[in-house]
Amino acid sequence: MGVVELPQEERQIVVMTLRSGQFAQLDQRYNTFQEQYEQGTINDRELTLKYQAFYDTSPENEAYLNQWIAKNPTSYSARLARGIYLRKLGEAARGTAFVKDTPRENMVKLQQYLERANEDFLDSLKLSRKPIVTLLHLINSSVMRGDKQESVVWLNYANRIDPNNYGIKRRYLLALTPRWGGSYDQMWAFLKACRDQETSTEYLRIFESGIYLDQAKSLAEQGQRERALPLYRKALSLLEGIDNTERLDALKGVVYNGANPTNLEEFSREIDETLRLAPTERMILGYRGWIRFKQHRYEEGLRDYALGAELGDAYSQLQYGKQLYHGAPPTFAPNPTQGLLWIKKAAEQGDAGAQQFLVRIGKER
């Protein structure tokens, strides 16, 4: 399970094939993936990733998805692709705020898009012997609508066609978190049920880590970092050798809840691992830049600061600006004008160190 997301290049290939009207090629591509899944050469997670190309909510895609279905009304992948596209449009319309902070019209739009998406999902169920990706999106839809009974229906369907499925079990477990109206007792009970179903050991490790991660996140949100940290570490130990979103969350949790300006080097391993999985995690780029400067790896540290600054991290902007202003060792010549531009960007974000630097420079002038 070494891929967290479908590579951008592969997404672009699929989108360009769609927009050039090469629907037969799309059917062949996705029929091959479906056959590989049904023959057991890829798992449901790997198959699901292939459909991430249709997360692209560009308005022009809808007309091409409609044409694809019109050309081949019995295409499982076409129906599923349009359903995914519509579901993602609904999520975009809703936004990411808590329900209480979300305008009613956004929730209405979400519901409308989900209804349209579900029509395609339900139609696609009839077009495949093992419509496992459809079931994942149906359970996502039922969770978003708060329909727990329907979620159980899709979970049972998935378990019948693929007892060792990953995606549907994982999504159902997440729906049992307290923030979604469930409880940790329910999550542990579901984990036991997965064990009784002889779910793979790797999947069980991921599911168990998910419980610890949610507990850790809840504590961190309450400002209880010291209590959250061992739970993040517990999750991380369960995920040894598994590259996935849970591992990335655990790594970031360990760093953000354990690291401080006096002990960053103690977290070098977690910082490097985080950036291996998420090379643009901007705050952690700043942390690694600091470590590399302390280790006299100046060129590498400057690259980390530069990327973190470009991505908008205030700390990286300050450090990069200071290195430009003064000149970074051993051979990087000073560039005060460029340096001040970055320091001002950090100050505009409220960075106290940057604001103090500008005040001091102003006095010196």
Written account of the structure:
The chain has 365 residues and is mostly helical. It folds into three domains: 1-165, Serine Threonine Protein Phosphatase 5, Tetratricopeptide repeat; 176-258, Serine Threonine Protein Phosphatase 5, Tetratricopeptide repeat (Alpha Horseshoe); 267-365, Tetratricopeptide repeat domain (Serine Threonine Protein Phosphatase 5, Tetratricopeptide repeat, Alpha Horseshoe). 72% of the residues lie in helices and 0% in strands. The protein contains 19 helices and no strands. It has helices at 8-19, 23-38, 44-50, 60-71, 76-94, 104-125, 132-144, 148-161, 167-175, 184-196, 201-221, 225-238, 245-258, 268-277, 282-294, 298-310, 314-326, 336-348, 352-364. The longest helix is centred in the first third of the chain and has 22 residues, at 104-125. The protein is globular, with a radius of gyration of 24 Å. The N and C termini lie far apart (57 Å).
Task: Put the structure in a nutshell.
The protein has helices at residues 8-19, 23-38, 44-50, 60-71, 76-94, 104-125, 132-144, 148-161, 167-175, 184-196, 201-221, 225-238, 245-258, 268-277, 282-294, 298-310, 314-326, 336-348, 352-364.
How do the helices and strands line up, and which of them pair or pack?
Elements: H1 8-19, H2 23-38, H3 44-50, H4 60-71, H5 76-94, H6 104-125, H7 132-144, H8 148-161, H9 167-175, H10 184-196, H11 201-221, H12 225-238, H13 245-258, H14 268-277, H15 282-294, H16 298-310, H17 314-326, H18 336-348, H19 352-364
